[in-house]
Amino acid sequence: xxIEKTLGLIKPDGLERGKQGVVIDRLLKSGFKxxxxxxxxxxxxxxxxxxxxxxxxxxxxxxCSYMTSGPIIAMTLEKENGVADWRKMMGATNPEKxxxxxxxxxxxxxxxxxxxxxxxxxxxAAREVPFFFxxxxx
Length: 138
Ligand code: IDP
Ligand code: MG
Description:
Alpha-Beta Plaits
């Protein structure tokens, strides 16, 4: 299997409640290399562009407000089968439906404030990693 790059975000609710350390610790203990990492705050336009695939959904406006409500941490993650493995560690979008032991089940607030983001496919990762990092940053 080849090493895959994927994007990880720790969302505003995660930083607000001081969960950065737990998320990063879980990633490292699961064998991920964090090859780039930075803390930033998205503008409205950036949040809308990042989540453009959801622009017709009723939760889009509130999602973009929430994602700009405070700082986030963006990470480039690398591991064999990294895209699927990070999604598995995160758990389902709705924390009530996420498997026990996943980040969202253990840490998330609700379906919107669900603490982490991960690319859902290698194709998404190829768009999302360069959205946050240029080729000098990893
Ligand atoms: P994902 O983050 O598990 O890939 P997506 O369906 O891509 O989930 O949705 C992106 C983000 O939009 C979610 O992580 C969550 O923050 C928010 N979201 C998705 N569905 C809902 C909803 O039904 N209500 C409120 N927020 C939602
Ligand atoms: Mg998604």
